[in-house]
Design brief:
Helices cover 11% and strands 48% of the residues. By secondary structure, it is mainly beta. Strand 5 and strand 6 form a beta hairpin.
Amino acid sequence: MRLKSSFLFILILFCLVSCDKKRVFDDYKSVGDAWARDSIVEFDFKQEDTTQHYNLFVNLRANQAYQFSNLYIIVAMQRPGGFVKIDTLQYQMTHPDGSLMGDGFSDIKESKLFYKENVRFDTIGDYKIRIQQAVRQTGKIEGVEALEGITEVGFRIETIE
């Protein structure tokens, strides 16, 4: 009976993973209990197709400890050869009632946030993505030292069909 249960679990897991045909790159990094202001989450990927178009996402896992309605992040993409493109992005994180947006049945919600749409990588080689939080409290110049509630930061690349 135990062998059948294990086989069934592996079969279901395989089906879930193989159904994600758009995924080119998908990785998460833990930021612990709080995302420090000076903590930069990095992702490295190799791009070999200069003809395909992609959508790029920043993925977040957050819990009820997140205290803000918005999230500000700085995303830097380093291309082969060293050129760096930096974007400052803002995302709405809560509904008007203060509950977290995102998918999930537990206290942890996963948000898939658009970073760039319809991107074509024009250079083959190694790319690096750096993501840093830039949240500030209203009326304060300094950023939030430790952003509670964000537990993991991810980066995803999907093909456009």
